[in-house]
Every structure is written in C-alpha cells, then in structure tokens.
C-alpha cells in the first residue's frame, strides 16, 4: 500500500512533465530565440544601458506569452491542414498528445499572461496588447488568401524591438522601427525558405506561399532580397543609435551567415533547407551581444 502511495504522485508528475514537453513541442519553445533577444535589443538601444528587473521581467514574460499564444493559435487554425501534411503529422495536436480543448485553454492562459505582463510594464503597452494579439492571430489565416503571408509573420515578430523600446519609454520613438523592419525582412526571408519544404502540399491544398505561387527560384531570390534589406536596416539602426564596434562586428557575422544560408539553398537544393533555416538561430543572440557591446 505504501509503495503504491509513493508511486502514484511520481506517475502523476511524469504525466504532467510529458504534457509540458508536448506543449513546448507544440509551440516550438526553442524558437523563442528569434523574437525575445530582439525585444532586449530594443530595450538596450533605447535605454543605452541594461534595464532593471522591473522592465526585463515583465517584458520577458510578455514576449514568451505572446509568442506562445500566437504559435498555439496557429496550431489550432492549421489543424485540418496539419492532419493531411506528412511533415506535420507528428505534431502533438495532431497525434492527440494535446487535446483541442487543452490547446484552447493554453491560448487563453497565455493571452491572459500577456495582458497582465503588459499592464505591469506601462499603460501604453497595455493599450497595445489587444491589437497585438489580434495581429498575431491574423497571420494564422493569411496563408489562405495571400502569398505574402511571410511578410505578415515578419511584421508580427518585428514588433519585438518596438515592444522593447516601449517598455523602457512609453513615448514612441520612430528610430525603433529600424530594428523592427530588420526583423520583418529577416523573418520573412527565412520563412520563405522554410515554405519551400511544403511546396507540393501547399499547391495541392490551396495554401498560399511565395514558393507555391511563384516557384522556388523567384521565391529564393525574394528571400535573398529580404536578407539584404535586413543588413541595411541593421546598419542604419547602428548609425542612428550610435553603436560602436561590437554592433558592426555582429552585423558582419550576420551578413556572413546570410551568405552561407543562401549558398546552401542556391539552385533549388531544398534538401538542405532545414539546415539553412537553423543558421538563423544564432543571429538574434549575436545581435543582442553586439548591441550590449556597441553601447559607448
């Protein structure tokens, strides 16, 4: 009897831990590296120093919550498509590891967490919380009607440095749009590459994307153009915020990663698109380090 009493809590803990891991896989928690560091970049460039925990803690919570909300909402909206697509057949919502009801509850919880965190930052962030959630949710349906859905995704994540700037100062500064546009083109560029993996499925199921609608070659050229724009906007941001050598060094490494990425997928070598996508992982962290080092 005692042995059974000891094992039951352990089994329940293991079940909860598995649910937690399934949720992390559903929202691809590791991809937080794309948005969160740029929120810190926006805060750093605006404050010209490391903000205190009164800013960083609610900012971090808000960013994790809004990204998790957007990803979970996207998984719910895409469930009928994910069930048909062999590449997404193993996603937790498709396999039943997470129920539709559970995913909806997770959406509601992260939306609430986002609103509370924005309220803890300042009144401007709170006022922008609701339109931000609506904008994030819109992306989930953009692929139903426009091939330029990649740019909408970029615009959603491009709000990260703007959010970081507003968390430090509630007075809008147009300069924060420079890193914002850099993120927009960065995300759009590698999302176009990633969309090449679903080319045949998207065409067969009426899903809009640049590769599906325009072909792989033109789509990859647009992706390269996007990443050129990313470098330009990051360079302009460095000039506007008077960044020092650290920022420029990070920018040079970022440009080198872009060149490597597009060399890999050049001439339609889509079998390497997954590796090319992975090269984007270090970029946001690299630029965060550059922003910290680049402040005189």
Structure overview:
- The chain has 296 residues and is mostly helical.
- The chain has a single domain, classed as Tetracycline Repressor, domain 2.
- Helices cover 77% and strands 0% of the residues.
- The chain contains 16 helices and no strands.
- Helix 2 crosses helix 9, helix 7 runs antiparallel to helix 8 and helix 14 runs antiparallel to helix 16.
- The radius of gyration is 20 Å and the shape is globular.
- The protein starts with a helix and ends with a helix.
- The N terminus is likely disordered.
Q: Into which percent range does the helicity of residues fall?
A: over 70%
| Intertermini distance | 66 Å
CATH architecture: Orthogonal Bundle
Number of domains: 1
The number of helical runs is: 16
As a whole number of angstroms, the C-alpha radius of gyration is: 20 Å
Structural class: mainly alpha
CATH class: Mainly Alpha
Instruction: Predict the CATH topology.
Output: Tetracycline Repressor, domain 2
Layout of strands and helices, then pairs:
Elements lengths: L1 H25 L9 H12 L5 H25 L1 H6 L7 H4 L4 H22 L1 H20 L6 H9 L1 H10 L8 H19 L3 H7 L4 H5 L1 H25 L4 H20 L8 H6 L2 H14 L2
């Amino acid at each position: 009897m005692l042995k059974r009493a000891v094992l039951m809590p352990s089994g329940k803990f293991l079940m909860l831990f598995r649910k937690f891991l399934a949720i992390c896989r559903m929202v691809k928690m590791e991809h937080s590296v794309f948005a969160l560091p740029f929120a810190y970049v926006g805060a750093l460039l605006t404050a010209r120093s490391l903000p205190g925990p009164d800013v960083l803690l609610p900012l971090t919570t808000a960013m994790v919550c809004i990204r998790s909300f957007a990803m979970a909402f996207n998984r719910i909206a895409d469930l009928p498509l994910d069930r048909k697509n062999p590449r997404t057949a193993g996603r937790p919502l498709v396999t039943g590891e997470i129920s539709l009801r559970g995913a909806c509850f997770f959406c509601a919880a992260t939306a609430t967490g986002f609103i509370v965190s924005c309220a803890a930052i300042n009144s401007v962030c709170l006022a922008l919380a609701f339109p931000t959630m609506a904008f994030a949710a819109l992306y989930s349906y953009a692929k139903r009607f426009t091939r330029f859905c990649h740019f909408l995704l970029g615009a959603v994540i491009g709000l990260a440095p703007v959010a970081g700037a507003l968390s430090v100062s509630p007075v809008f500064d147009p300069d924060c749009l420079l890193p914002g546009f850099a993120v927009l083109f960065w995300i759009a560029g590698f999302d176009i590459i990633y969309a090449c993996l679903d080319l045949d499925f998207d065409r067969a199921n009426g899903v809009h994307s640049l590769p599906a609608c325009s072909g792989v070659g033109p789509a990859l050229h647009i992706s390269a153009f996007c990443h050129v724009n990313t470098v330009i906007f990051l360079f302009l941001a460095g000039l506007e915020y008077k960044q020092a050598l650290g920022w420029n060094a990070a920018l040079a490494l970022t440009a080198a990663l872009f060149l490597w990425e597009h060399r890999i997928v050049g001439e339609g070598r889509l079998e390497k698109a997954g590796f090319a996508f992975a090269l984007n992982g270090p970029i946001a962290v690299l630029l965060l380090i550059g922003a910290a080092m680049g402040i005189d």
